[in-house]
Amino acid sequence: MRVLLVTSNWTETLGHAVRAIAVAQRLIEEGHEVGFLGFPSYEELLPQGVQFFPCESLPPGYDRDIFFGNHTYEDVVYVAGHTKDSHIISTVEREREVIRSFQPDMIFNDEQFTIGISARLEHIPVTALVTWPLHPEFNRDMEQRLPERRAILMRSRNCWNRILRKYGLAPIAHLSELLYASDCLITPTIPMLEPELKGLSSQVHYVGPLEPAGLFDSEPEWLADDKDDRPLIFIYLSSLQLPDGVNTEESFAKLYEAFDGQGYRVVMALGKFNTIGSNLPTRSADGSIRVETFVPGPALMKRAALAIYPATHSMMLSAARHRVPSLLLPDMFERQYNARCMERAGLGSSLPLMNMTPASILTACEATRRLGNLPAAKALQEELARMDGPGQIVRLMEAQLQASEEMSC
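RESULT FIELD:
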């Protein structure tokens, strides 16, 4: 089986890349041929044997003066600048070029909306990664509550529909239809965390976490040699820079001040593609705080007593898998939903950004650390441990390909 893995090119973060890398590793192990379409910065992270193709570059940003908040992924696509005909068309044509060159039997799509166009034009079946916040019905009521935002969304949808008509394809009422119309839908979580997907008319396969091996779960030398027995706190604020988001110099400074000299070991990960926070001291005076550009998340989670992050999806699953209590700093729609999921599961508590001070961080930290011992957290960990996400995805793709071949006979 020849599989082309495609990651979103509307934001350059490791969150999307690592899930596809986990699938690539399993495909290679089982003898399949793998191509990868993504940002050039991802190439060094891929397993040997993967054929890499650079994607279309990021577009120019949006008009800051016309913005009504991040309520769905359509807002994020608007913020990322993916509302210009020329850029969307060049992205589609780049994908078609790669599809024709690699000639895949199947495409694995991690939130790249244009694959819903290019794969259909090239008649290649798609296995798409979805979540409830990606669904068209998620936060649908916000369109009526914010009419100015609805006008912006209509302008964005009109742009995408112009392109669909150009290629002879049916128009859409919501951008996420391009993902949910895929041949096979998978979600990297479990019903205990994200139950809404169970009730959809289109079957969504729950596969659990997608964590790659190698670089991402191997302890760096400085961690392997660390004999300090103080509780370890793992902090990551995401590489995604959003208007009014948590990934700011101010947030890093507050967190640094909160834990400086407080008897914890703290690892603050800035993010591979993040420049914010790079002016912080890389080590605190007493050596208890360490600032790194990149850290292997799963390796840190195995040791952490507490994780602090904006309720990003991959971090949430990793924390749940290792039963690490989470102090959550959600700053956008998906992360607010994820935070509620973790709170419902008994593994997280949220700290509103407006209330975020060094003192409130410490208070919330102490309260949150006790959550990992609750029965619900243990049940969640046990359920995640039974899942083999990459393996299940490979089985689903093989079955989808066999079904497609039988239909064509």
